[in-house]
Structure formats: C-alpha cells, structure tokens
Design goal:
By secondary structure, the protein is α+β, with helices and mostly antiparallel strands. It contains six helices and 13 strands. It has a 13-stranded antiparallel beta sheet.
Length: 309
C-alpha cells in the first residue's frame, strides 16, 4: 500500500509541479522584475552524507536554504511553528529564525528545518540560546520537532527517518549561528554499529543580486532533494543493506519508547542504548499531533503537510 501511495504521490507531484512551473515562466515573462526580499536571508551550500557500516556509502549534493525572520516576514511556509510558539518551547525572549527549504512549484521537501531561538540581554546583545530541530521522514510523511542545545547535544533517535536504519541509536547535533556562514552536523551512534553515520550541512550567505528572483532561486530545489534521497536508497538496497520496516508495525508505542530512551540517555549517558525503563511520560493526543515532555526535552510528533514525499 505504501508503494502504491508513493507512486501516486510522485505522479501527482510531477503533474502539479509542471503546471506551476509553466505559471512561473509566464509570470517572469509578463513581469521580469525580481521580487523584493524582506526579512529573509538566502544561503547556498552542500549536504554531505557518509555511512560507514555495514557497508561504506557516501554522497553530497548542493542545496539552497532560506533563513526567515519569523517575527517580521510574511512569507513563512505553512505548517511550521510561529515565533511565539518557538519562544514558548525554548523559553527564550528574542528573535526566532527558521532555516528551511521553502515550497517550490507546489512541492515541499524538508528533511531538516532548524529554528534558531535567541535571548536578548540589554538593548542590543543577543545570544543563540536554544534550537528546535524539525525532522521530516520520507516517504512516511511524519514530522518530529525537539529542542536541543546548539553548542552540542545528544538526542535519542525519535523518528524512523530511513528504511535502512533502526530506531536504536542517538543523534549527536551541533550547529553554528547563521551569519555569513552556517553549519549543521549530525552523527549517529549505534549500540552495535558504533559511530556509523554522519550528515553535515555547510552553507554561505548569498546576496540578493546574485540570487535573482527567489522563486527561480528555489525552483525544483525540493524535488532535487527528494531525488537524491530515493536514488541513494536504491543504492543502499543494491549494496545489500537490510531493509527495516517502520516501527509502528512492530510497536505502536514507538514514540513513547523513544522518549523513554532519551530520558535514560540524559540520566545515564553510559547506558543510553538500554531499552528498559520504568519512567513515566505525559502524552496528549489531538488529531494527528502528539506532544510529550520528558525530564529534559520536549517533543512534538505530527503529520507533515502533503505532498511530503
């Protein structure tokens, strides 16, 4: 069923994106003047992935991101936190910036978005205090958001992001404040495979004069990211990496189990892979949104806006 839905989504997205691409072309012909940018910074860079076990596999691709000031910009993509929501979660009092690949010609693909939450001291000094990661898996269309320390943090894996990775592991995350350059580095530590996976984003600020029209700057950017994801999934399958079903088929409470692992990780870092825990969680389900607050971290699971694959 998931394969059929994936094929339907690919066909539907292709038709929709082709239609909107034609509209974009006509708009540029009728109005060649580039759109004005307000409270948005553009970045261009590279994403690099390396898997070291059970087989070696690495690749990189170019990406373009938008850094949006959520307090002032009117072009915030839907289905994301507002500035006030991000401040409430992070307990900060300053600006909130969202790093994201904006939707393009009817399609959105964001494996990772980052909210940079600042504290303001005095009249002008601001410090990056907390970040919120927003991770979307492909092709299941689930999204998890969680708070982390930008200097360095370790998070028990809360989402099935790949059919070639199980749920047992932790993410080590480190980001730099977005200035002329930015970086996001994530590595995966596994109880059996060790430090076996690394993903790094490095990007530089792009001037509006070089970028031109923002719609053209991001044209088919989400589509290219999706193609890279699917193509390298095929390569991993061809190399014989075991295929792992979504954990919901084996354990409907996999989200609660992820939270328990994270609580245990914060409490006893030397035993972060132990699956047994008697700690309690508080959950509240509303529609397709699940919020959980552990001892030291806040999670929100929800369905990503379609089309997400």
């Amino acid at each position: 069923m998931e394969i059929l839905y994936l094929l339907f989504s690919i066909i539907s997205t292709s038709l929709t994106s082709s239609f909107y691409s034609l509209l974009l072309l006509f708009r540029r012909i009728l109005n060649p003047r580039a759109a004005e940018y307000k409270h948005v910074t553009l970045y261009q860079g590279t994403v690099w992935h390396e898997r070291r076990r059970p087989v070696h596999h690495s690749f990189q691709y170019s990406v373009r991101y938008s850094l949006i000031d959520l307090d002032h910009s009117t072009g915030v993509p839907p289905n994301h936190f507002s500035a006030d929501e991000a401040r409430r979660l992070s307990k900060t009092n300053g600006p909130v910036l969202l790093l994201t690949i904006p939707p393009s010609v009817g399609y959105e693909q964001n494996p990772l978005c980052v909210y940079y939450c600042y504290d303001v001291e005095g009249s002008s000094t601001r410090n990056l205090k907390k970040c919120i990661a927003e991770v979307t898996n492909t092709p299941w269309g689930e999204r998890v958001s969680f708070l982390f320390d930008p200097k360095y943090d370790i998070v028990a894996k809360p989402l099935h992001v790949s059919p070639f990775m199980d749920m047992f592991g932790n993410w080590s995350i480190k980001v730099t404040a977005p200035e002329d350059n930015l970086s996001v580095a994530i590595s995966v530590e596994h109880p059996e495979l060790g430090d076996y996976f690394t993903a790094v984003l490095r990007a530089k600020k792009v001037s509006f004069e070089m970028a031109g029209d923002q719609a053209l700057f991001f044209w088919l950017m989400p589509h290219r990211v999706a193609i890279w994801i699917y193509w390298h999934a095929v390569k991993l399958w061809w190399k014989g990496v075991p295929f792992i079903k979504h954990p919901r088929y084996q354990s409907p409470t996999y989200r609660e189990e992820a939270l328990l692992r994270d609580e245990r990780l914060q409490c006893c870092p030397s035993h972060w892979w132990d699956k047994d825990s008697n700690q309690q969680t508080e959950t509240s389900d509303s529609s397709n949104v699940t919020e959980m607050r552990g001892k030291s971290r806040y999670y929100t699971w929800r369905d990503a806006k379609w089309p997400w694959c």
